[in-house]
Design a protein that fits this description.
heterodimer; A: alpha/beta; five-stranded parallel sheet; three-stranded antiparallel sheet; 5 helices; 31% helix; B: alpha/beta; four-stranded parallel sheet; 12 helices; 38% helix; disordered C terminus
């Protein structure tokens, strides 16, 4: 039987985001060139939260955008086309410090696709990766710069990030598959 | 998910859900054409042949842009200058192309049913870019997308299709698509240019252009194919314009502003006057823009259509 446990409750998630927001500003040496880019779907909501936290703490209004990587996936032949392609809208990325925000980092293939897509929109000075959960299991040489929480899981396990904007509550759930 | 199957032959055999799937998929593709680099890698490595047995500028170029913006490799074959002019049959031409390992064929042909005929005989995906008087599904879809953009809905919309309905594959695709999505459709034109039994498709016949203008929310003005005059369908172009032309004077008497569509190429001063075609309610150029997005959506949805279902279960995490 799969068992479900809570990895982060709403307060733990909120604390993690506050810490991540300040880490982003530190890593980028301020907010001057900072751009936050959320990956559809839940990365967009998390990027919005981080933007609000940074804007409030630093009294700024940093540009942000959203990215849908569906058309950059490397597995169209394996999974078939996804009918729901989300919106992509990005501010100017040239010369900026671009922070890609996603909910879960797993194989790294989504991030690979996001890097390709970002490169088609401009030439950032540098690109950082920020994820709420790093669950291990990389299939590509990709790592996160800012991490909410890290766990080491097997392919049978599953992590679900729920956000109140889309799911009615903030929580990170871990479903353990049969060993 | 309402998958499309292997081919897109027409809108007649699509469900309302399948039509909505194509329209919804076209939305994000509009934005791709506005990017600094107008290209995404979704169809990288796919080979597509545009097989055009009839003249076409807009449709062929629109398909070609759609293919290139999805990173597919494309080849154009026109009937003149190919082995077709030496008498090769359609199936032989297509089988030879398939022997060179292509993935999709976009076909424009003068015979109704050519796309379906080909689709049954080759393994590649086949997309109908207009077959005789039968259907022109991507034109129907881009017309519907343009209407949906402007009105926010299709259900309940009143659309009048005006002019040479008899010879028009555009009219048929529009009628099928619009009625499936709940629009009311009327046709208007000289009796010689309305097909017999058209009412059985669920459309109203309006004999006078003034009636169509008074009734409709949008007019889709069809091209009067000039060769029709020689073959006796209409007495003269001038008379056609006088009786059926969409003019500013006629539109001024309408109870509301009408949206004006035209699939092109236009005969200015025949079926449509210049000040209407270039007027503020004309969406003729937005139709062309939407054409690329709709064709990208169709290519994208068909290209992945042969996926192995066993591998489709992969989760969203990455």
């Amino acid at each position: 039987m799969p068992t479900r446990t809570q990895l982060l409750d709403d307060r733990a998630m909120s604390r993690a985001l506050v810490r991540m927001a300040s880490e982003i500003v530190e890593r980028c040496g301020g907010t001057d060139d900072l751009v936050l880019v959320g990956i559809q779907r839940r990365g967009v909501e998390l990027a919005d939260r981080l933007k609000r936290l940074i804007d409030a703490a630093e009294r700024v209004d940093i540009p942000s955008g959203k990215l849908d990587i569906t058309l950059y996936r490397d597995d169209l032949q394996m999974i078939g086309p996804r009918p729901v392609v989300g919106e992509t809208s990005l501010p100017d990325l040239d010369g900026r410090s671009v922070v890609i925000v996603d909910d879960v980092l797993y194989t790294g293939r989504t991030v690979r696709a996001a890097l390709d897509e970002v490169a088609d929109f401009g030439r950032p000075r540098r690109v950082l990766l920020c994820v709420l959960v790093d669950r291990g299991g990389r299939e590509l040489p990709i790592q996160a710069d800012v991490v909410g929480t890290a766990v080491s899981l097997t392919t049978r396990d599953r992590v679900d990030v729920l956000v109140s904007e889309l799911d009615g509550r903030d929580t990170v759930e871990l479903t353990r598959g049969d060993a | 998910m309402a998958a499309l199957g292997k081919d897109l032959v027409g809108l007649e055999h699509l469900s309302a859900d399948q039509i909505r799937l194509i329209l919804d998929t076209a939305e994000p593709f509009k934005e791709v054409s506005e990017r600094p680099i107008k290209k995404v890698p979704a169809l990288r490595g796919k080979t597509i042949v545009n097989l055009f047995f009839e003249a076409s500028t807009r449709t062929r170029i629109s398909f070609e842009f759609a293919e290139k913006r999805l990173s597919a490799d494309t080849v154009n074959v026109a009937a003149s200058g190919s082995s077709v002019s030496k008498g090769e049959t359609l199936v032989d031409t297509a089988k030879n192309l398939e022997a060179m390992r292509i993935d999709m064929v976009v076909i424009r042909h003068g015979s109704s049913g050519a796309a379906q005929f080909l689709g049954h005989r080759i393994a590649s995906n086949v997309i109908n870019a207009g077959d005789g008087k039968h259907e022109h599904p991507t034109q129907g879809l881009l017309d519907i997308l343009t209407l949906r953009d402007r009105f926010g809905r299709i259900a309940g919309l009143k659309v009048a299709i005006c002019g040479d309905v008899l010879h028009s594959r555009v009219a048929r695709s529009n009628i099928w698509g619009l009625t499936k999505l709940g629009a009311e459709v009327a046709v208007c034109g000289p009796p010689t240019l309305l097909p017999r039994g058209i009412a059985s498709l669920g459309v109203t016949i309006l004999p006078r252009i003034e009636d169509a203008i008074a009734w409709a929310d949008a007019l889709n003005v069809l091209r009067l194919q000039l060769e029709r005059m020689q073959t006796g369908f209409i007495p003269s172009l001038r008379e056609y314009n006088r009786v059926f032309g969409v003019t500013r004077e006629r539109l001024a008497r309408a109870p509301k502003d009408l949206l004006i569509l035209h699939p092109g190429p236009m005969n200015r001063g025949v079926e449509i006057d210049s000040d209407v075609a270039d007027g503020e309610h004309s969406v003729i150029l937005p139709q062309v823009t939407n054409g690329v997005a709709v064709r990208m959506a169709v290519l994208y949805l068909l290209a992945g259509g042969r996926a192995a279902p066993a591998q489709a279960a992969r989760g969203d995490e990455a």
